[in-house]
Q: What sequence folds into this?
């Protein structure tokens, strides 16, 4: 299994990570080596073998869906973590480019 | 001997006998950190004033007679675990400025007992690595040889305990991140059963594998800390309702030592033809082999029954692990996008905001994991990778379940080799992944496992041995480890 630079570019776009051309080349090489190694799993017959997604065996762990107040000091701390605030609201670039200029 | 070199057990006694105060103990740790951090780099954040204030409060509790097991004991926390009002970076620059308003449940439990939080330990960013070279705050150096790695991903935690910069550390083990650095630094490290401890407030890596556990100098100290942190948590639905035994008291109860205990030696961990070494990357280091054999002899002398066993799917563990982990990783790390918290790239374009914040804020290995995971989960590849890995995961679990019908505990090396040179594997991710061959299987199966120091190589590098038990068998696992530790001390 090998991964081309073009495929790396596509995955990086999906994962929202900007890569330099050197990084794209390096990831293509190292990930290809990792995928090549993963081929050993093809030796294993997994016909009718169920998947393991969790190991505890717990089922349907419920809790009441209740609204809890956020204490004002916690709210302040959360707001203070935000990279850009205007009037205590999170500021982000426009989702639709250019729309804000209409 | 400085008081920072004491075990939890010794320090707790000293505090109660008024030989020293919690403030003295905290000052001794802070002085050691100040002296050594430039070289070893085990801490990303150190809290001097706050720690001393917490120590003074602990002294008041000790005086008032309301002290608990960990009151006044200085400890440190892996930076990939959330600490309230204390910067928590995960060793990645995207969270360089992040000070959380909440706290991991396990840390709350420890701090409510009055333990003193010294600061945050360096680690591989978000737990991605086996050498602590993937930190954006520089590598951690092994206190036993500064040219060697401390192991990873919890390298800072292991180095801090080994170097007596704290009395214990809390870290996270997804596929060996507590046990492998414990082995390389010569301390004790426990990966509890998945579900035993709350994961709430752990920066999530692979949610189906992440666990939280202690690193200490002795097995008894592990028991003391585990008792404090274990238990069901309403904030983590994967925690189990099983009661928490008094692990420390149970250690004293076992009278027969290791007599009659059935210790399984899984052949796959020792044989070069088993497949573990088939890629040419991993062979058991001769001195690790020697120390393991010596331990087996010591166990026989102590009356344990040595049983050769087989876990036939062992050789697939790393491949399973490195599909499941990046897949779950890539989903979990999607939350770090520079929008609501953390370091945001300066741009007015939304796509660039995501892509540049993540490019600047993640080290190369984090990017690689996200890329592998995104690929493995994408349409057309999901069945071939993620589903296949989850099926083989079932077979690995079944191996363990079958073998624990025959034996009480398994003994293996923790790491195929002692600490390696800084930079030695840095450019070969696959070689670094294969450093996990001995620790990944128990993680994939959800079993508890502990690494304890078994001796040193001719170069004075520590070597750890791993004991693996059945799910939720911490009680007996710790008592076996405790007995084995006594044998090593002879």
A:
């Amino acid at each position: 299994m090998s991964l081309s630079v073009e495929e790396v570019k596509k995955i990086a776009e999906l994962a929202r990570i900007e890569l330099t051309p050197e990084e794209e080349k390096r990831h293509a090489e190292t990930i290809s080596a990792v995928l090549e190694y993963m081929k050993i799993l093809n030796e294993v017959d997994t016909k009718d073998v169920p998947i393991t997604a969790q190991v505890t065996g717990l089922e349907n762990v419920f809790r009441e869906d209740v609204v809890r107040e956020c204490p004002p000091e916690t709210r302040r701390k959360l707001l203070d973590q935000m990279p850009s605030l205007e009037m205590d609201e999170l500021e982000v670039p426009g989702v639709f480019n250019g729309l804000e200029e209409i | 001997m400085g008081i920072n070199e004491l075990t939890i057990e010794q320090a707790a006694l000293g505090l109660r006998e008024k030989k020293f105060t919690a403030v003295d103990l905290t000052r001794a740790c802070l002085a050691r950190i100040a002296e050594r951090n430039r070289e070893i780099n085990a801490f990303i954040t150190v809290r001097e004033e706050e720690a001393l204030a917490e120590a003074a409060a602990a002294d008041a509790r000790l005086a008032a007679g309301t002290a608990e097991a960990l009151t006044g004991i200085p400890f440190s926390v892996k930076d990939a675990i959330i600490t309230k009002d204390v910067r928590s970076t995960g060793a990645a620059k995207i969270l360089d400025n992040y000070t959380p308003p909440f706290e991991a449940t396990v840390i709350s439990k420890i701090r409510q007992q009055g333990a003193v939080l010294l600061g945050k330990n360096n680690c591989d960013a978000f737990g991605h690595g086996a050498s602590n070279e993937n930190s954006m705050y520089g590598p951690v150096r092994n206190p036993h040889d500064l040219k060697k790695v401390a192991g990873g991903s919890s390298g800072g935690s292991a180095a801090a305990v080994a170097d007596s910069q704290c009395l214990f550390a809390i870290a996270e083990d997804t596929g060996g991140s507590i046990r492998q650095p414990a082995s390389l630094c010569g301390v004790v490290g426990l990966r509890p059963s998945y579900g035993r401890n709350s994961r709430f407030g752990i920066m999530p890596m692979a949610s189906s594998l992440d666990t939280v556990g202690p690193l200490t100098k002795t097995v008894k100290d592990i028991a003391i800390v585990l008792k404090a942190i274990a238990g069901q948590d309403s904030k983590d639905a994967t925690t189990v309702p099983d009661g928490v035994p008094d692990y420390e008291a149970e250690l004293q109860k076992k009278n027969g030592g290791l007599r009659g205990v059935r210790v399984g030696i899984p052949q796959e961990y020792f044989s070069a033809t088993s497949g573990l070494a088939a890629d040419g990357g991993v062979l058991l280091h001769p001195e690790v082999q020697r120390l393991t054999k010596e331990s087996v002899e010591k166990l026989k002398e102590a009356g344990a029954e040595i049983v050769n066993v087989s876990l036939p799917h062992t050789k697939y563990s790393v491949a399973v692990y490195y599909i499941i982990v990046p897949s779950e990783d890539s989903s979990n790390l999607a939350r770090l996008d520079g929008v609501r918290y953390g370091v945001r790239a300066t741009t007015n374009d939304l796509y660039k905001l995501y892509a540049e914040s993540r490019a600047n804020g993640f080290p190369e290995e984090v990017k690689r994991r996200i890329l592998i995971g995104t690929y493995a989960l994408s349409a057309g590849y999901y069945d071939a990778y993620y589903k296949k890995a989850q099926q083989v995961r079932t077979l690995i679990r079944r191996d363990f379940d079958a073998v624990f019908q025959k034996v009480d505990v398994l003994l293996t090396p923790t790491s195929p080799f002692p600490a390696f040179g800084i930079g030695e594997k840095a450019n070969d991710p696959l070689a670094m992944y294969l450093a996990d061959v001995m620790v990944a299987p128990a993680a994939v199966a959800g079993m508890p496992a502990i690494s304890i120091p078994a001796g040193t190589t001719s170069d004075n590098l520590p070597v750890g041995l791993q004991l693996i038990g059945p799910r939720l068998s911490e009680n007996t696992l710790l008592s076996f480890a405790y007995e084995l530790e006594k044998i090593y001390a002879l």
Observations:
- The first strand of chain B starts at residue 43 and ends at 46.
- Chain B touches chain A through 72 residues (CB under 8 Å).
- Chain B has 16 helices and 13 strands.
- Chain B has two domains: 3-252, 254-320+384-489.
